């Protein structure tokens, strides 16, 4: 029997993302709203990977593949963390604003962007005064999430993609090779498709949709996600937290 075509699976997943999808979001559940943003980041990165694949530039898609993976893993955590992820993300925003404010002061542009600087300062004060530190703040870092969920395979993929996302010998050697007799250089990547792009996109999009389905009211995608998982050999259930304690209770 022939293997199912990833393109067909991608079409079926795309058909689930209907125009009325927002009707399945609970507006008073912050994990649902944040999950929306996390999921559509995955979908957006998948679109970028497929576009680069179509253009024959699969090697340039490593940052997109890595970003899609990171957002999908964070979406899984969002489902478990629940409403508290809103405060955790606001605390992260506080840290980001502090770093940006320091950068503006360091390069002497604080006064030029006075209004923006004051907004950042006010954000930092408001978050500091109203939101207590959370023991799960450390989970905004992807390596802590990967460890907590025991995602060995995902971490391997993330690490490999990082070697092409950042300047490394591995990335550099995509454009030359030594066969023992001479060094051969190329103006295009020696390996055109580092991973099977369509299959990777189908896998990561399915993972993200499996998680996002959990925060949609009535979980409308369940039957089709299960059928696709069985046909393509994907997981039918989300990875479970293996770290200490209950994420919602910590």
What does this 3D model show about the protein?
The protein is an all-alpha fold and 250 residues long. Helix content is 60%, strand content 2%. The protein is built from ten helices and two strands, in the order ααααααααββαα. A two-stranded antiparallel ribbon has the order 1-2. A hairpin with a 4-residue loop joins strand 1 (176-178) and strand 2 (183-185). Helix 3 (62-81) packs parallel to helix 9. The longest helix is centred in the first third of the chain and has 25 residues, at 30-54. The radius of gyration is 21 Å and the shape is globular.
Protein topology:
Elements: H1 6-16, H2 30-54, H3 62-81, H4 85-106, H5 114-130, H6 142-149, H7 152-165, H8 169-172, E1 176-178, E2 183-185, H9 197-215, H10 222-232
Short précis:
With 250 residues, the chain is mainly α. The chain has helices at 6-16, 30-54, 62-81, 85-106, 114-130, 142-149, 152-165, 169-172, 197-215, 222-232; strands at 176-178, 183-185.
